[in-house]
Structures are given as structure tokens and as C-alpha cells.
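[job 4417] fold queue: 2 targets
>>> target A
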Amino acid sequence: MSVIMTAAGEALKARLQAEGKPLVIDTFVFAHIPTLDPTEQLTPGITVPTEQVVYTYPIPDEYRAYVNPNQVVYSALLGSDVGDWSFNWQGLVCSEYDTLIAAATVVSQTSFRLKPQNWEA
């Protein structure tokens, strides 16, 4: 697993701090990159792999938490109606500035949608 704050994310954070404005991270991006090795370190110049994006998730306010100036928490709740797709790359985006702030790689995981079944009594 590799996790990184992107160079674009660091630059945007610094610029907004200088302007006294908040950095709002409001979107999770999930992608599946077939050739990705999750043990390889990501580079600061990474961008969203738009051709491999499988799902985007708008992050509700209640799924964002501030811990300290160097630590925040973002969560995604993927319901049983979301799927079927696999992902091995996640990104956090500030949509206001169309900027990838951070990215992470993981071993390939799959989100399955619950399929309705006909139950007979």
C-alpha cells in the first residue's frame, strides 16, 4: 500500500492557507488500474487515472473529520446498491479546484451490489 499527498494538493493547500481559505476535500475517486503494483511508491506528480475511474463518491460533511493540522479523516460508505466493480486506487479530490489532493493504492478489492432474490415461502 502506498499513500501520498500530491504535489498539486500541497500547492493548493499552501495557496489557500495564504489566502485564509479552507481546503475542502469533497470527493472520493475509485479506480482500477490493471498494471498497478500496490507495493510501489506513488509519485507526488500523480494525477487521477481518468480512463480507469470506476466510481466517484461525493463525501458528505459528516464523513469528514479534522484531527489536527496534519491529520484528517475521510470516509466512504458504499451501500449494498453500489457495484459491481473492483478498485485498487483511491483518490481524494477538491472539486472546487479540480485538484487531486491525495492518493492511495491497495490490493484489488471489489464492491458487489446486492442482487434481489425471489424468496419463496
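>>> target B
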Amino acid sequence: MSKGLLFSGQGAQKVGMGKSLVEGSEIAKAIYAKADEVLGWDVPLSQICFEGPEETLTETRVCQPALYVMGYAIFKILEEQGKLEGLSLAAGLSLGELTALAAAESFSFEDGLRVVAERGRKRALFQAARAH
């Protein structure tokens, strides 16, 4: 039987997301650590995901990288557990498309994260401009 994965888009974020993954998986821990390193934010993405505040996590510039990292971490955990045998499709909703492309090794996790972070930053600027 063929399998497919669908990666989520903006709106699926929730404070605490990814925390149990990091607590239970060395792969997830390494992915979140790499994301914090790549982004280099004053407040690490992992801290925002695990502890909030919700107002920060729901900002477009933050939630898009957060969802990308969590989706990729789940993918890598499933891969490690051998649960992706027969995987023939990866797709995504909006920014989830970029997570699917990283899962398909179209580009590295790090390069995808940089693209998603820039995408989120530009969308946030666009939303702010439209509000004025």
C-alpha cells in the first residue's frame, strides 16, 4: 500500500508544540537545536514553541518556521521508526509545501528553514503594510 504525508500550514500552531517530541527523541532534539542555531534569534524558536507566549507564536514570522520545524521533526522520527516504508507522496498546505520539499530532499532542512523564515518575515511585513 502506498503512503502519503500532508504537512500542515499556518494556523496549526499551539504553545507547547514539539516539546514532547524533543523530550522523547534525540532526532527531534537535534532538529530543534539546529533550527535555533540557523535562525539565531534572541529568543530561540524552541523556547517560543515550548513556552510561548501565544501572541509571539502566532506571529506569521514565528509560526511559519515553527510549523516547518515541527513537521520536519515528525517526518524524521517516523523515518527513524521505519514507518515510512512505501511512502510515495508528500504534500503540504501553504508553507507545508516547503516541509514536503525538505522531506523529499529537494533542499536541505537548513536551506528550507531559511526560506520559510524569510517567507514568514515578508508576509508579516505585507500584513502590517495592509493594516495601515
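[job 4417] complete. Note on B: The chain has a mean pLDDT of 94.
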